[in-house]
Amino acid sequence: MSRIVGFETFDVRFPTSRELDGSDAMNPDPDYSAAYLILRTDAEDGLSGHGFTFTIGRGNDVQVAAIEALREHVLGRDVEEVCADPGIVNRALIGDSQLRWLGPEKGVMHMAIGAVVNAIWDLAAKRAGVPLWKLLADADPRWLVSQVDFRYLTDALTPEEALEMLRRGKDGAAARETSLRAEGYPAYTTSPGWLGYSDEKLTRLAHEAVAAGFTQIKLKVGADLADDVRRCRAARAAVGPDVRMAIDANQRWNVGEAIEWVKALAEFDVYWIEEPTSPDDVLGHAAIRGAVAPVKVATGEHVQNRIIFKQLLQAEAIDFVQLDAARVGGVNENLAILLLAAKFGVPVCPHAGGVGLCELVQHLSMFDFVALSGSRTDRVVEYVDHLHEHFVTPTVVTGGAYQTPTTPGFSAEMFPATLEAYSFPDGSFWRADRGEV
């Protein structure tokens, strides 16, 4: 019997704020960061599980400390047992009554649980010899249902309904997998639209996005309306009338302000408004959606758990679910969110900015297409062209589509050299940055 014997954490930070990469109205100077975890075992195969949660700089050390608080729940566990049933770890971490008080099921502690749970899934997929999307898509529907925590969901989604949807998802799955491998999964890009970029850079990158095959781009908005009008006009001129253009306020507005602002930008044929107000304001999103149609409403990257997603769907408050691979409690909770979205017939368009999120969420969307929703219509995964070179199996996007991962695992593993160089504050990059030898 092999056991988990190593639990290594890293505070990894990249200085993206210096080029204003990732800048938006709420977060003007993000340093893309990862609270990173490696689970090591004493198994002869030498495989390890990698997971992380994404932050934007200050506080990443707090997130690492939260992951460290889960160490004793994981060390010593039977590798075969947890890989056969990752829900064991998910239930144990969420069920710690004293740590639960720090949420419950939200915030820094819940994100830490997501990092650990995702590392377990990475290890499970590696041991199975398949990429995570394939592990999920081939799984027995009853087993998948067993991985989902239905507490607080059964007024909207029961285990029986979930089982039926997953059983239906088996019909035609083989043909969809063949199509996925041949065509990939649709992507859109935010790379032209960071708020701190000049109009010239925005225009150049928008032209490049269209040339690269993207049929949707996204712009950050919300700091100054006159600037947003000018930037949206420039972007629309650059991409032409046939490319979708979404906008993202990153929670900047009150409800009334959001409605007025979106209406002022609607002349540029805006496809969706993302995070128009607080991610916790279900009724606010519903009011905005009702007022700004035909502009659609999307949110989810900061939605803290499956319960808020349930309410957003029940209230008909959003047109797109934007789940995040690392904001909630990992793969298990994201399975619940995917099932809820399928039940309500709302497309899932994951958030994938930051560091490593593109690598993770591609697996969730590909599983959803092959074995749950069965559709790529009106579904796109965000793509941001930053920091992929630090991953052993980086995301590949060509022709405006994510190419299907074939390497076993969750695509979460960073190179050891990256962990050494960018660990904060004593990695070699940060020491050199301070002028130290």
From TrEMBL:
Database matches in InterPro entries: Enolase-like_C_sf, Enolase-like_N, Enolase_C-like, L-fuconate_dehydratase, Mandelate_racemase_C, Mandelate_racemase_N_dom, RHMD-like
Keyword Lyase applies: yes
Pfam families attached to this UniProt entry: MR_MLE_C (PF13378), MR_MLE_N (PF02746)
CDD domains the UniProt entry points to: rTSbeta_L-fuconate_dehydratase
Superkingdom to which the source organism belongs: Bacteria
Cofactor annotation: Mg(2+)
Protein name (record): L-fuconate dehydratase
Organism: Catenulispora acidiphila (strain DSM 44928 / JCM 14897 / NBRC 102108 / NRRL B-24433 / ID139908)
